[in-house]
Amino acid sequence: MSIPQVTQKLLAAKKEKGLSFADLEKILNHDEIWIAALFYLQATASEEEAKLLVEALGLDTSYIQELTAYPVKGLGPVVPTDPLIYRFYEIMQVYGLPLKDVIQEKFGDGIMSAIDFTLDVEKEEDPKGDRVKVIMSGKFLPYKKW
Amino acid sequence: MSIPQVTQKLLAAKKEKGLSFADLEKILNHDEIWIAALFYLQATASEEEAKLLVEALGLDTSYIQELTAYPVKGLGPVVPTDPLIYRFYEIMQVYGLPLKDVIQEKFGDGIMSAIDFTLDVEKEEDPKGDRVKVIMSGKFLPYKKW
Amino acid sequence: MSIPQVTQKLLAAKKEKGLSFADLEKILNHDEIWIAALFYLQATASEEEAKLLVEALGLDTSYIQELTAYPVKGLGPVVPTDPLIYRFYEIMQVYGLPLKDVIQEKFGDGIMSAIDFTLDVEKEEDPKGDRVKVIMSGKFLPYKKW
Amino acid sequence: MSIPQVTQKLLAAKKEKGLSFADLEKILNHDEIWIAALFYLQATASEEEAKLLVEALGLDTSYIQELTAYPVKGLGPVVPTDPLIYRFYEIMQVYGLPLKDVIQEKFGDGIMSAIDFTLDVEKEEDPKGDRVKVIMSGKFLPYKKW
Amino acid sequence: MSIPQVTQKLLAAKKEKGLSFADLEKILNHDEIWIAALFYLQATASEEEAKLLVEALGLDTSYIQELTAYPVKGLGPVVPTDPLIYRFYEIMQVYGLPLKDVIQEKFGDGIMSAIDFTLDVEKEEDPKGDRVKVIMSGKFLPYKKW
Amino acid sequence: MSIPQVTQKLLAAKKEKGLSFADLEKILNHDEIWIAALFYLQATASEEEAKLLVEALGLDTSYIQELTAYPVKGLGPVVPTDPLIYRFYEIMQVYGLPLKDVIQEKFGDGIMSAIDFTLDVEKEEDPKGDRVKVIMSGKFLPYKKW
Amino acid sequence: MSIPQVTQKLLAAKKEKGLSFADLEKILNHDEIWIAALFYLQATASEEEAKLLVEALGLDTSYIQELTAYPVKGLGPVVPTDPLIYRFYEIMQVYGLPLKDVIQEKFGDGIMSAIDFTLDVEKEEDPKGDRVKVIMSGKFLPYKKW
Amino acid sequence: MSIPQVTQKLLAAKKEKGLSFADLEKILNHDEIWIAALFYLQATASEEEAKLLVEALGLDTSYIQELTAYPVKGLGPVVPTDPLIYRFYEIMQVYGLPLKDVIQEKFGDGIMSAIDFTLDVEKEEDPKGDRVKVIMSGKFLPYKKW
Amino acid sequence: MSIPQVTQKLLAAKKEKGLSFADLEKILNHDEIWIAALFYLQATASEEEAKLLVEALGLDTSYIQELTAYPVKGLGPVVPTDPLIYRFYEIMQVYGLPLKDVIQEKFGDGIMSAIDFTLDVEKEEDPKGDRVKVIMSGKFLPYKKW
Amino acid sequence: MSIPQVTQKLLAAKKEKGLSFADLEKILNHDEIWIAALFYLQATASEEEAKLLVEALGLDTSYIQELTAYPVKGLGPVVPTDPLIYRFYEIMQVYGLPLKDVIQEKFGDGIMSAIDFTLDVEKEEDPKGDRVKVIMSGKFLPYKKW
């Protein structure tokens, strides 16, 4: 998981400005996860969005070009070693087939889109230890017969 | 992703009885995803839970032993080829690092547990096409310093 | 690429009946590729479609269950060794990035769906040697911003 | 999928000139996909073609040498992580064997050439959402017996 | 490299009859390598060829079906462990790029076909130790520009 | 397949001098494939051979050291993506076991050496399309019993 | 296992100062293993801890930023080649399943946390050869049912 | 991680007898982990030990042969998917290099033996949640110079 | 490392007869390692040798066919998990390049044959612990220039 | 197998001085293989040994630090492509299990240490072609029971 140089610069600028992704959410009017994805060049901004971000971070406009491009996605490696990210791999390994069965029982043959898709994270306060709540919402795409 | 024989038998019995995982949810008093995970031997039932399930499916009690065991988890392969399951792998590839940053900004250094963890699926009706909503909730585990 | 036993039985019955996939196209009113995908358990038939197919092949109705199920898709291995199939892997290796650029230039950030998708094969007669024409048509899915 | 430096320079020049691959199609008299493949050093231009391209992009002639060379092809990695490119890998995984059967039924034992081969992309306008049409045409090569 | 059961039966029958592949060359009027490839289901016989072979081996006609089919080719594994076969992998590792350069210098951009292709083995007697001569002949396929 | 910098310099010098590998064959008195292997640091020259080559290419003597060294051989990757080189991998996949059987039938238990080995390429003119002829000759090495 | 540059600088400073990890244990009031993990950017320090470390090593404060960040964890490769580290991989290969059975027999269905986790190394003097004692202590996390 | 049939039989017999590994510890006078390793054919018993175990489990003496043999060790797969076992893989990924540095600082150049090695598991009661304590003790082996 | 059934039968017969490989060395007049290799179908016996072995083991002559065949060699997997065998993989990882340099310094460009090759194991008694002595002797094969 | 820069510098100095590893053997009083391993940072020298080597090679003392460190061992890749080194991988593939059986028959359950280990190479003159003799001697380590 080699992090692109642009990402490193954006993260450093964000740190210097003392901004959280949640702060940027208000400025860009997009979810903090989508903005984090933009930082990692996994999403693409419009010209205006890129300008807003660059201004907020106090960077010059030379960053706009990369933020509005369509880069090759996927941050590798094949099996993630970072424990936080690995847990999502593990969830897919352990609950992938059960999930498939339940989704198909509810919707028929098809998939949850990872493109027409949103992803949110919330903090659930809990006396026994706070919980991370991850909400995915993807359009159901039924297999076309032809 | 070779499906265990027990799983195949349980799924066949469920089909014959005309039961959905949602129906079993009411009988077992557990979420349908957890029950599907039990079908795939990725979760472990108590004696009573196993009995309830076996009765509901019209199977003899010989299945109880496998349903109450602690089997080796993880359904492979390394990169899933099934399109529905692959999309969750893709989400981890594309949004893994952004997710990590947002979670750590909210919670500090640590991970979302995949053990003290629940997983739900809901159908969101939408005129532009129904959506699959997947909700994960895992306890935040901060890294211990020692 | 281990071929499921059902597939082998279906292919043997088809051979015995002297039917081509093109013949089945007329009976099932679906494209021959989709029907071949059904043979390999990579597509799912309705009850009526399954009955029609089973009758056409002179098989008993016990096959209907597998033809109407939602099996785990993907026929492996990671890199295909069969020369005919490998060429499609090679096309993805050599023309994948150029294709990405041209599609994104025409459509913006997004993908061609492999679910809302059709695939056809035609024979182009050519004095210098007949040509295989493969036509893919997938709905363009733009990345959602949220 | 590390993109060669020449490619990056060519793409930057193209962007600055405000040219699309479709525009270059008219100048070079070759398909936009072939031109995109040339950008990624997956195809080889003649001296004249390379000159035409270099002029159109406002670059000096030093680029001609790389555009007319025969570089090592294949842009890796083994399984693509970019969602747009992955879908073509998925199509090969899911429809590879069905495709093989239909092609061999129509043509006999052999393959579709990926060398004597053309690849086109078209935009199909559709009220339910535009579609990406990908047309491959490869010479059928029958296996030689000796 | 798991050897198909048909192959094992054909090899056993050949051994029992005391026939070499060179003997079969005279009966089938095809090269011994092509016949060995047929034994391993890597080539496809016509009805007549299959009958000739089956008779020569003293087997019943039930084998004809597999010998005339178009099976999935490639005998794996990814990197061969058998020392004789590995040497061909090593030749590709060590001499692959030099070979590419020399072929392209002689022929231009393109490949040697592995389909319109023949392969022969000869024994070169040599006082310092006999030599294995392997002769490959494949049609040169120039890359099409479109 | 990352090409060593020395190789790139040698190839550039060769191009500037307008020399083919066939031209170098006359100067060095070695086969063009062996010379190409030397360019890629897969073979080792004597001092005199290295000097001859360096002079022919108009390079200074600093290259002699690398040309006379014994570098780590093998140009990777595990499965080649370049179509020309892949075909040799495919030949090993498809014809590896048949080849093994024919060689062992002719020679007994052992291998074809890839060390006491020569490799030649010839152009076979053919009205239906020129052919690439690749001739390998390796000493047969019988397995020693001890 | 490419070692980050910061790590190399920290290790060099520690060597120059003649400090052992055991010495740093007293300064930082954390276990030497945790401190070594911090050196390798596998743990995260607080501002004060980072300052203490930087002072002890005689480095300027520019290192504090990296020591307090949350980097991507996991030092690769998939199977370690270093003999000392490989032995821990081997222990997991050989004793992984037995360990699983014993832990589950003692605790029920769940895992030992690698996050709420400590790791210590002690030297056990022994006349037959000193022994390395590695003590892991992780919170038991029972699988949640939902 | 395919579990040998003998293992499955031994585990079933143990379950039927209602014996824990801790119970067997008293009978065999060996640690429960070593006994579990014996169940998985990762350790080798003497004749007497095998007899004791077989008697305790109420099995016939035919199992003695496998329990006293030296089988191929290592239970695969390359990266474990079972969450409990994966955590040990993760510990090696995250703490492998720090561990190496601390061990070498204490002992010099060498390794902890995984052969002259013991492994224990204890339950640490803790009001905040019980802890799994894993204690490894391996002889330090210094690298020999010769 | 799945062990062939023939091997298992041969090993069982050897055990029943109470014969060591050293005993068989005297009967077959070949080294014990070569005989063990024959047991694992990694070497090929003559008719007489096979008869001698089969008699010594008290088996019927039906085993002669497999012992005199030329099977596919290599017992996998890619990286061995068995600790005894892994150490040889480790030696190749750690000492492979140093060995290459010393061999080439002594012999020039070439390899040690693994075909014209013998392998012996001896027990070196040593008060500090007996030692395993492994002696390999392979013909040096110089690279041919052509 | 990327060779460390220090190694390259040491090898270059050795070449300039016209020293063989055998020459260094006399100076350092260690085996030439161990010295070659030191060159590749796979072994660790004492301060005095490092000084002796550095003097002999005419290098300044700045190299002493790396020669006395404990670097991460293992020179990769997973399967070596260099023919000389591959042969040792092949020996492990072909003779690994036979070797295991013979060693265990002689010594019981355990392994040959690769740490308390020496490795020598000798040239055996032979009229039929000189032979490479490789002698490994490793302490036998019996599996501890606990």
TrEMBL record, chains A, B, C, D, E, F, G, H, I, J:
Q: Which GO terms describe its molecular function?
A: cyanate hydratase activity; DNA binding
Q: What InterPro entries does UniProt report for this protein, alphabetically?
A: Cyanase (IPR008076), Cyanate_lyase_C (IPR003712), Cyanate_lyase_C_sf (IPR036581), Lambda_DNA-bd_dom_sf (IPR010982)
EC number(s) recorded for this UniProt protein? 4.2.1.104
- Catalytic reaction annotation: cyanate + hydrogencarbonate + 3 H(+) = NH4(+) + 2 CO2
**Keyword Repeat among UniProt keywords:** no
Q: Which UniProt keywords apply?
A: Lyase
Catalytic machinery residues: 87, 90, 113
Entries under SUPFAM superfamilies matching the protein: Cyanase C-terminal domain, lambda repressor-like DNA-binding domains
SMART domains per the UniProt record, alphabetical: Cyanate_lyase
Function according to Swiss-Prot or TrEMBL: Catalyzes the reaction of cyanate with bicarbonate to produce ammonia and carbon dioxide.
Record family assignment: Belongs to the cyanase family.
The entry's protein name is Cyanate hydratase
| Protein source organism | Dendronalium phyllosphericum CENA369
